[in-house]
Amino acid sequence: MNSTPATASISAGRAALLLVVVCTALHLLVAGRVELSGDEAHYALYGYFLDWSYFDHPPLVGWLQALILPFSDSDFALRLWPAALGVLSSLALFRLTRTLFPDESPWTAFVAVALLQSALAFQVFSIAMEPDTVLLPLSLGAAVFLLRAVEHERASDWLWVGVLFGLAGLAKYTAVMLAVGALLLVLLSTANASTSLAKAGGYTVLLFAAVGVYLFFSALSVATGGKPLPLGKPVLH
Protein backbone atom coordinates (compact mmCIF):
# COMPACT_ATOMS: atom_id res chain seq x y z
CA MET A 1 0.00 0.00 0.00
CA ASN A 2 1.38 3.38 -1.02
CA SER A 3 1.92 5.88 1.78
CA THR A 4 0.20 9.25 1.73
CA PRO A 5 2.29 12.46 1.61
CA ALA A 6 1.47 13.12 5.26
CA THR A 7 2.61 9.64 6.26
CA ALA A 8 5.78 9.98 4.21
CA SER A 9 6.50 13.32 5.87
CA ILE A 10 6.11 11.80 9.33
CA SER A 11 8.33 8.84 8.38
CA ALA A 12 11.04 11.10 6.96
CA GLY A 13 10.84 13.33 10.02
CA ARG A 14 11.19 10.38 12.37
CA ALA A 15 14.11 8.99 10.38
CA ALA A 16 15.84 12.38 10.48
CA LEU A 17 15.20 12.68 14.22
CA LEU A 18 16.59 9.17 14.82
CA LEU A 19 19.71 10.02 12.82
CA VAL A 20 20.19 13.22 14.81
CA VAL A 21 19.73 11.40 18.13
CA VAL A 22 22.33 8.77 17.21
CA CYS A 23 24.85 11.36 16.02
CA THR A 24 24.28 13.52 19.10
CA ALA A 25 24.88 10.51 21.37
CA LEU A 26 28.22 9.97 19.61
CA HIS A 27 29.06 13.68 20.02
CA LEU A 28 28.38 13.50 23.75
CA LEU A 29 30.47 10.33 24.01
CA VAL A 30 33.43 12.09 22.43
CA ALA A 31 32.82 15.30 24.39
CA GLY A 32 33.70 13.66 27.69
CA ARG A 33 36.79 11.88 26.42
CA VAL A 34 38.70 14.61 24.56
CA GLU A 35 40.23 17.67 26.22
CA LEU A 36 39.22 21.17 25.19
CA SER A 37 41.17 22.65 22.32
CA GLY A 38 42.93 25.99 22.69
CA ASP A 39 40.11 27.82 20.93
CA GLU A 40 37.45 26.14 23.09
CA ALA A 41 39.26 27.13 26.28
CA HIS A 42 39.66 30.66 24.93
CA TYR A 43 35.95 31.03 24.27
CA ALA A 44 35.06 29.38 27.59
CA LEU A 45 37.00 32.15 29.35
CA TYR A 46 34.58 34.63 27.82
CA GLY A 47 32.02 33.16 30.19
CA TYR A 48 34.10 34.29 33.18
CA PHE A 49 34.57 37.82 31.83
CA LEU A 50 31.23 38.87 30.38
CA ASP A 51 31.29 41.88 28.10
CA TRP A 52 29.53 43.30 25.05
CA SER A 53 32.42 42.47 22.71
CA TYR A 54 35.88 40.92 22.68
CA PHE A 55 39.04 41.37 20.65
CA ASP A 56 38.15 38.96 17.86
CA HIS A 57 34.48 37.99 18.35
CA PRO A 58 31.13 39.24 19.61
CA PRO A 59 29.89 37.99 22.99
CA LEU A 60 27.17 35.37 22.46
CA VAL A 61 29.48 32.34 22.69
CA GLY A 62 30.69 33.62 26.08
CA TRP A 63 27.19 34.43 27.29
CA LEU A 64 26.07 30.88 26.58
CA GLN A 65 29.05 29.35 28.35
CA ALA A 66 28.38 31.64 31.31
CA LEU A 67 25.12 29.76 31.82
CA ILE A 68 27.08 26.50 32.23
CA LEU A 69 30.05 27.65 34.30
CA PRO A 70 28.19 28.19 37.62
CA PHE A 71 27.32 24.47 37.58
CA SER A 72 30.47 22.92 36.08
CA ASP A 73 33.62 23.80 34.18
CA SER A 74 34.35 20.25 33.03
CA ASP A 75 35.16 19.55 29.39
CA PHE A 76 31.92 17.59 29.04
CA ALA A 77 29.76 20.37 30.50
CA LEU A 78 31.33 23.02 28.28
CA ARG A 79 30.42 20.90 25.26
CA LEU A 80 26.73 20.55 26.06
CA TRP A 81 25.90 23.66 24.07
CA PRO A 82 27.56 22.41 20.85
CA ALA A 83 25.60 19.16 21.03
CA ALA A 84 22.31 21.01 21.60
CA LEU A 85 23.03 23.56 18.87
CA GLY A 86 23.92 20.76 16.46
CA VAL A 87 20.47 19.27 17.06
CA LEU A 88 18.83 22.64 16.42
CA SER A 89 20.83 23.07 13.20
CA SER A 90 19.66 19.71 11.89
CA LEU A 91 16.02 20.36 12.76
CA ALA A 92 16.17 23.83 11.22
CA LEU A 93 17.70 22.43 8.04
CA PHE A 94 14.95 19.83 7.80
CA ARG A 95 12.30 22.54 8.10
CA LEU A 96 14.13 24.82 5.66
CA THR A 97 14.33 22.08 3.05
CA ARG A 98 10.62 21.31 3.42
CA THR A 99 9.86 25.03 3.06
CA LEU A 100 12.00 25.42 -0.04
CA PHE A 101 10.79 22.24 -1.73
CA PRO A 102 7.22 21.64 -0.54
CA ASP A 103 6.34 19.60 -3.64
CA GLU A 104 9.33 17.28 -3.38
CA SER A 105 9.43 14.06 -1.38
CA PRO A 106 9.85 14.65 2.38
CA TRP A 107 12.83 12.34 2.14
CA THR A 108 14.65 15.18 0.37
CA ALA A 109 14.78 16.91 3.75
CA PHE A 110 16.10 13.73 5.35
CA VAL A 111 18.89 13.57 2.74
CA ALA A 112 19.76 17.21 3.50
CA VAL A 113 20.09 16.40 7.20
CA ALA A 114 22.13 13.26 6.43
CA LEU A 115 24.51 15.27 4.25
CA LEU A 116 24.90 17.87 7.00
CA GLN A 117 25.68 15.16 9.53
CA SER A 118 28.26 13.65 7.17
CA ALA A 119 30.22 16.91 6.95
CA LEU A 120 33.45 16.86 8.97
CA ALA A 121 33.16 20.55 9.82
CA PHE A 122 29.68 20.03 11.24
CA GLN A 123 30.92 17.16 13.40
CA VAL A 124 33.58 19.47 14.82
CA PHE A 125 31.08 22.25 15.48
CA SER A 126 28.74 19.78 17.20
CA ILE A 127 31.47 18.92 19.69
CA ALA A 128 33.52 22.12 20.04
CA MET A 129 31.95 25.42 21.15
CA GLU A 130 32.96 27.89 18.45
CA PRO A 131 31.26 31.06 17.16
CA ASP A 132 30.26 29.11 14.03
CA THR A 133 28.56 26.54 16.26
CA VAL A 134 26.19 29.27 17.44
CA LEU A 135 25.90 31.01 14.07
CA LEU A 136 24.71 27.98 12.09
CA PRO A 137 21.35 27.25 13.79
CA LEU A 138 20.57 30.96 14.03
CA SER A 139 21.21 31.43 10.31
CA LEU A 140 19.14 28.41 9.31
CA GLY A 141 16.31 29.44 11.62
CA ALA A 142 16.37 32.99 10.25
CA ALA A 143 16.19 31.62 6.70
CA VAL A 144 13.09 29.60 7.57
CA PHE A 145 11.27 32.58 9.05
CA LEU A 146 12.43 34.88 6.26
CA LEU A 147 10.88 32.63 3.62
CA ARG A 148 7.68 32.42 5.65
CA ALA A 149 7.63 36.18 6.17
CA VAL A 150 8.05 36.95 2.47
CA GLU A 151 5.38 34.42 1.52
CA HIS A 152 2.76 35.04 4.21
CA GLU A 153 3.65 38.59 5.34
CA ARG A 154 2.96 37.87 9.00
CA ALA A 155 4.32 40.35 11.52
CA SER A 156 5.36 37.53 13.89
CA ASP A 157 7.57 35.98 11.20
CA TRP A 158 9.28 39.31 10.56
CA LEU A 159 9.89 39.70 14.28
CA TRP A 160 11.58 36.29 14.44
CA VAL A 161 13.72 37.19 11.42
CA GLY A 162 14.95 40.31 13.19
CA VAL A 163 15.59 38.53 16.49
CA LEU A 164 17.48 35.63 14.90
CA PHE A 165 19.61 37.87 12.69
CA GLY A 166 20.34 40.08 15.69
CA LEU A 167 21.48 37.04 17.68
CA ALA A 168 23.51 35.85 14.69
CA GLY A 169 25.32 39.19 14.73
CA LEU A 170 26.12 38.59 18.39
CA ALA A 171 27.52 35.16 17.46
CA LYS A 172 29.87 36.23 14.67
CA TYR A 173 30.47 39.55 12.94
CA THR A 174 30.34 38.00 9.47
CA ALA A 175 26.62 37.40 10.05
CA VAL A 176 26.18 40.91 8.69
CA MET A 177 26.52 39.39 5.21
CA LEU A 178 23.54 37.14 5.91
CA ALA A 179 21.49 40.19 6.77
CA VAL A 180 22.60 41.88 3.55
CA GLY A 181 21.37 38.91 1.52
CA ALA A 182 18.11 38.91 3.46
CA LEU A 183 17.63 42.60 2.76
CA LEU A 184 18.05 42.04 -0.96
CA LEU A 185 15.38 39.34 -0.84
CA VAL A 186 13.04 41.62 1.11
CA LEU A 187 13.57 44.51 -1.30
CA LEU A 188 12.86 42.31 -4.31
CA SER A 189 9.74 40.96 -2.66
CA THR A 190 8.57 44.44 -1.73
CA ALA A 191 9.15 45.70 -5.27
CA ASN A 192 6.96 42.94 -6.67
CA ALA A 193 4.16 43.29 -4.11
CA SER A 194 4.55 46.43 -2.04
CA THR A 195 2.42 46.29 1.12
CA SER A 196 2.70 48.15 4.39
CA LEU A 197 3.46 44.91 6.26
CA ALA A 198 6.24 43.92 3.89
CA LYS A 199 7.77 47.38 4.25
CA ALA A 200 7.52 47.21 8.03
CA GLY A 201 9.19 43.81 7.96
CA GLY A 202 11.95 45.15 5.75
CA TYR A 203 12.56 48.03 8.11
CA THR A 204 12.70 45.62 11.05
CA VAL A 205 15.36 43.51 9.36
CA LEU A 206 17.20 46.70 8.38
CA LEU A 207 17.25 47.83 12.00
CA PHE A 208 18.81 44.60 13.24
CA ALA A 209 21.24 44.60 10.32
CA ALA A 210 22.26 48.14 11.24
CA VAL A 211 23.10 46.97 14.75
CA GLY A 212 25.28 44.24 13.26
CA VAL A 213 27.07 46.74 11.03
CA TYR A 214 27.64 49.02 14.04
CA LEU A 215 29.22 46.17 16.02
CA PHE A 216 31.34 45.18 13.02
CA PHE A 217 32.83 48.64 12.57
CA SER A 218 33.40 48.94 16.30
CA ALA A 219 35.48 45.74 16.23
CA LEU A 220 37.23 46.89 13.06
CA SER A 221 38.18 50.17 14.72
CA VAL A 222 39.71 48.36 17.69
CA ALA A 223 41.54 45.86 15.46
CA THR A 224 43.19 48.71 13.52
CA GLY A 225 44.35 50.56 16.62
CA GLY A 226 41.45 52.97 17.02
CA LYS A 227 38.87 53.43 19.73
CA PRO A 228 35.74 51.28 19.90
CA LEU A 229 32.39 52.83 19.09
CA PRO A 230 30.15 53.42 22.13
CA LEU A 231 28.77 50.02 23.17
CA GLY A 232 27.73 50.61 26.75
CA LYS A 233 29.25 49.35 29.97
CA PRO A 234 30.36 45.73 30.51
CA VAL A 235 27.65 43.34 31.65
CA LEU A 236 29.75 42.14 34.56
CA HIS A 237 32.86 43.67 36.13
Structure described in brief:
The protein is mostly helical and 237 residues long.
Can you offer a commentary on this structure?
With 237 residues, this protein is mainly alpha-helical. It has one domain. Helices cover 71% and strands 0% of the residues. It has ten helices and no strands. α4 packs antiparallel against α5 and α9 packs antiparallel against α10. It is flat and about 50 Å long. The mean pLDDT is 79.
Which helices and strands, and how do they pair?
Blueprint: H1 5-31, H2 38-46, H3 60-68, H4 80-100, H5 107-118, H6 120-125, H7 131-152, H8 155-171, H9 176-192, H10 196-223
Helix pairs in contact: 1-4, 1-5, 2-3, 4-5, 4-7, 7-8, 7-9, 8-10, 9-10
| Biggest sheet layout | none
Cα distance spanning the termini: 66 Å
Strands, count: 0
Give the low-pLDDT segments.
none
Protein structure class: mainly alpha
Q: Give me the strand/helix succession.
A: HHHHHHHHHH
Descriptors:
237 residues
